[in-house]
Amino acid sequence: MKIYEDRQAPNPRRVRIFLAEKGIEMRFEQVEFMAAEHKTGDFKVKNPLQEVPVLELDDGTHLSETVAICRYFEGLYPDPPLLGQPGDALDLARTDMWQRRIEFKILAPVVAAFRHLHPAMAPFQVPQVREWGEANTETAGSMLDWLDQELANRPYMAGVRYSIADITALVAVDFARVAHIKPLEGRSHLARWHGAVSARDSAKA
Length: 205
Prior knowledge:
The protein is α+β, with helices and mostly antiparallel strands. 52% of the residues lie in helices and 7% in strands. The longest helix has 29 residues, at 89-117.
């Protein structure tokens, strides 16, 4: 099996970190977004939505969507559990809650700000709406303030254990810098958390 990705994009990085945490070796094939390789006919067969990452299984089956790919590997390699503790309904639900909160409330506006404000994205984000990019920059900032306060009394996003929620948050915080958002400025709890998760070997994946 192999994964199609663009190494510069945030969602493929989420999968790479997830796999690194589990010690899973994987083949990767690059699909260069800036060269519009995701729009070719061959790639559209793999994912009609023209997005990465895409997992290709040995039988030719394709899976897209970051969390779906992670869930597949969690089923094959349950240790360490990154989607919540098996058998613990509350921990599973809490992990899912925080993963979704961070994906939709922080990563999504960060990506929208990048797509609508960065000049290099003009050929791909049609139309670029500056006002929407600026609105999402403001939304990302307010959500980062909220997350900073949430981390005042716990070490990780979903509680006492590292999880997929931390992976998504790490990628969101790091990509915020690419979007010219200063995610750690004035946010001491978030900065403490970021230092800890960035020190993990998987963060370099």
